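Recall that a protein's primary structure is simply its ordered list of amino acids. Everything else, from secondary elements to tertiary packing, is in principle encoded there. The following example makes that idea concrete.
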Amino acid sequence: MRTQTKCTLTLCGMLIVEILPIPFTALYGIYAIRKRPGWIPGVVESLYADKPAEPAGPVKEVPQGHDPMETRKKCTIAMSTMFLVDVAVPFTVPFGLYIVRRRPSWFKDIVARLYADQLGYGASGLGNAADELAESLERRHRELELENLQFARSLRRKLG
């Protein structure tokens, strides 16, 4: 079953719970923003994995030196407002269904900004993490080349 279908079914189940007088979905959204559980970026990544690329342009990257706490504050304010609206009219679940079914690029961008420090491109910058990874891969490549050369020499000595 695709992630999009799983998320849709989960939100439909939460719509049934929304009949209660307390807007559970908005409260859970506030919890997710404040605590930032580690599984959310993975779910968002798999949700957007099979979405065709938009011709509008490339996905925005998180700017170097971005403060995820600022995004967290803005998201908390937005979700609190949604909570207040949810008390009168169920709004959060239909909005969540819109996000899951349409998969707008701005939502993936917000999640990347919210988890910037955990995903490795916060204050240290995405460029630094990529440079470190490239350097590590290059070092490992040189080690493997040296091991291959030593193996070839030892095999040549044995054979001949």
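Residues 95 and 130 are 35 Å apart (CA to CA). DSSP finds eight helices and no strands in the chain.
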